Amino acid sequence: MAGKKKEASLQVSVTNQEQWEEMLAVKGLTVVDVYQQWCGPCRVVVSLLKKIYNELGDDLLHFATAEADNIDALARYRGKCEPTFLFYGGGELVGVLRGANAPLLQRMIVQKLGEEKMVLEKGVERKVIKDSGLGEDEQKADVETQAEDNIIVPANKSYTVAIIKPDAVAHGKVNEIIMKIQNAGFQILAHEERRLTEDEARDFYRHKTAEPCFEDLVRFMSSGPSHILILSQAEGSANVVPAWREFIGPADTEEAKRERPESLRAQYGTEALSNAVHGSENIEQASRELAFFFPNFRMASQTEQDGKEEHAERTLALIRPDVARERREEILSQIKKAGFTVALQREVLLTEEQVRQFYSQHVKEDYFPALLHTMASGPVLALALARQAAVRHWRNLLGPSDVNKAKEESPECLRAQFAVENHPINQLHGSASQEEADREISFFFPQQQTLAVIKPDALREHKETILEEIRGSGFSVVQSKEMVLTKEMAEELYKEHKEKPYFSQVVEFMSSGPCMMLILNKENAVEEWRAMMGPADPEQAKATCPNSMRARFASNILHNSLHGASTEERAKEKIHFIFGDICSDVEPGGEGETDRTDIAKEQNSLGAENSDNQRQEH
C-alpha cells in the first residue's frame, strides 16, 4: 500500500482497518494525521512535512492521513475536530500531539525518528505510551510529557543556536529564511516560537551589558516573537558555529550589504539591531545559549550511542521529622509508584549545627528559624532516589515549596498532600540540580571504605570478572595488592571466628595460595559490598540472591570466593592490619568534615539492626 501511494503523495491515505494494519507494519517512524470525513486532514502542515522530509531525506520516515470514521482502532477519535498527530514505531504508539503546532511537530518528528533509529540500529527499548483519548487528563499528561522530553543528539557533531529576530518575524520572512537555511545544508533539530521578556533578553545578552546599545537591544528583542532554532550540519562537515556566522554575515547590515550581499543579514536586516538573525559567536557561547533556550538539550552519552541502557540519575529526598514519624510508608509507596528506586536510605537525628551547615544558603531567610526547629525536632529520613531525570521528576512530584501555593495550584503534589496543619514549612525536600544532588547525597551518605578479599579459589578462576563487576557497581578501588597470607595473618584476619569449629579450615584455606586484598570506596560501602557478595553459604545465596557473586562463583561454604568486613569499625581495623597507615581520599580538616563524620556515626548507630555476633564474615 505504502509503495503505491508514495509517488502520488507525501502522505499515504489510510481509509479502512485493513490499510491501517498495513501501515502499522511499515518499518520506521510513521506520523499519522488523524481526521474525520466531515473536516478532512490538517492541510496547513503539509508544506512543513514536505520541508522536513526533504531536509531529513530518511527512508525510515513516513507520513499518513487516517480517516477515523472507518477505522476501528481510531474509534475514540471520532466526534472531535482538533488536529491530532499520532507517532507509530514498530506498530506501537510512541508519541501524540494535538493541535497544529508547527515548531513542536517538527521537533517531535526529529526526536521520535532519532529514537526509532536507535531502536532499529542499536536494540534500545522502544518507549511505548498510551493515549486515553481527547479531553481526558491522562491524554494531556502524555502530550505534556512528550513536549518535555530531552532533545538527545549525537555527540560527534557540533550545534549552535540561531534566532530569527522580531523584525524578520514581523515582516513575515520566517518561512523564507528557514527555506534558505535548509537549502544551505543546515539541519534544523528544534524550532520554537518564543517572545522573550525583558529580563530574559537581559540575561541572554548579558555579555553585551557594557555596550552603549544594550538597553535598545533588550527592548528590541522583547518587542515581539522570535523563532529559536538548533542548527547542525551533515556528519563529517566543519564546525557549525563559524559556518552559520559566515552564512548570516556581519552584524552591521550596511557592512553585510557591501561585503556579503548574499548573506541573510544583507537580505533581511535593516539596521545594526534589526539585523534579522542571531548566531552564537563561538562554541562556548553556543553551549550557553543552547542551555538557555533548550534546557533539555544534551548530547547522547557513549552508552546511549552504543545502544546500552543509560545509568540512572540520583537525587536527594528528605522526609522531615513531622511526617517521617507518622506517614513515611505512604510517602515511600508514592515514591515507588512514580518509578523511583531507593538507592540509599538512612534515618538520622541532626544537630542544629548540622542543619545550619546543610541549609547554609537559607540561614538569613525569615523562615529559617522554623526550618531549623523542624529539622532538629526528630529523626529525618534521608533517601537517595534513582531513575532517569531523577532531579526533575522528583521536584515535579514535590510541587511548589510554599505550602499554601502547593495546596492552591497543585493539590495532588506531595507537599500539598503531606502538609502539616498550621505549619509554614513543607515536609519534603528535593535537590534543585544534579550538582546540588551530588553535594547533598555526600552530606548524608559520606564515602565509606571497606576491605574486600578475593580468596584463592576465585582469584584463580574469576579475578577479572569480579574486578569488572566491582567497578561497574560504582566502587572505586583505593588500593589493592596480591599476597599469600601466612598462617598467623589468616588467624588475625579471622580472629572473631577463633572459637568456631571451622576456624582451622578457614585459616588453612586462606593461606593456601594468593589472595587479592582491596580497599573499596563508595557510599555505604560496607553494606553495599556485603550485599554484592551475598550470603556466606553459596547454597543459601543461590536460593535467596541468585545474582550475587557467591551464588555464581563459590563452590561451598569454605571455598566461598570472597570476604568482606561486617561493620565500618571492623573494616577500618582490617584495612590497617593489611595495608598499614594509609591516607584517606578525604583530606582531614576539610570544610564540614567533622559534621559529616558525626552524621555517619549517628547513621551507623541508628541503622545497625544486627549485632556483630549475628554476622558471618568468612
From TrEMBL:
Belongs to the NDK family. It is found in: Cell projection, Lamellipodium; Cell projection, Ruffle; Cytoplasm; Nucleus. Residues 585-618 are annotated as: Disordered. Its main location: other. One of its GO terms (cellular component) is nucleus. Major role in the synthesis of nucleoside triphosphates other than ATP. SUPFAM superfamilies: Nucleoside diphosphate kinase, NDK, Thioredoxin-like. The keyword Protein biosynthesis does not apply. This is Nucleoside diphosphate kinase B. Coiled coil: none annotated. Keywords: Cell cycle, Cytoplasm, Metal-binding, Nucleus. Transmembrane segments: none annotated. Residues 602-611 have a biased composition (Polar residues). GO terms for molecular function: metal ion binding; nucleoside diphosphate kinase activity.
